[in-house]
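User: quick one
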Amino acid sequence: MVLQDFTTWTETDPDDCITVTETRVTWTAADGDGDSYVVDDRGAGGIPGDFTHQFEVNIGGMAYLGTLVVWSLSNTADFTNNEDVELKIKDFFGDTTFGIYDWGGELEIESGAITTDTLYFVTIARVTKTYTLTMRTGSHTGNVFYTGNGTQTGDLASRYLWGFVDGTHT
Amino acid sequence: MANTGYIQNFDDGEEAGAAGAMQPKNYWGETI
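Assistant: Done. Structure below.
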């Protein structure tokens, strides 16, 4: 019922590509090197095992073969645990897709090509160790563009919630 | 083309069961 206030998250932005307001993180000319990001440290075990995260994403454009992260969980700040996961936005020869992947390579949920300059309402639900990604176009009541799921193994403890990464952790 | 875009209106669901709520609802008023 209460939206996250991004101004209370930690912004690191050496590329000066991020603009943060209470409800929105905007990136402009992000160069994809992964050194600019917005993250919330919730303390050890601060992210529950089961959750439903919902947000809206609009991709204005992607560099050819570019990659960004717009949502991610990790247990350490360096994103090196097998269970760390990220929602990547990837350009693949001109087609942009959304996909959930983990560091360990067990999890792979990937949408078809999206349309730029279009609002996508994204739901990421984790129940036990299964993730479900649902994307609707336009709003929370829009048509379902994609839904898919995948399952991890191992310990799912998470501490850091990432709102945006200019590039990818991996 | 440059990488541009935004993420907005992030509901992490953790306050969906706030006191007085009959059922957990998200920011958009939907039961989750």
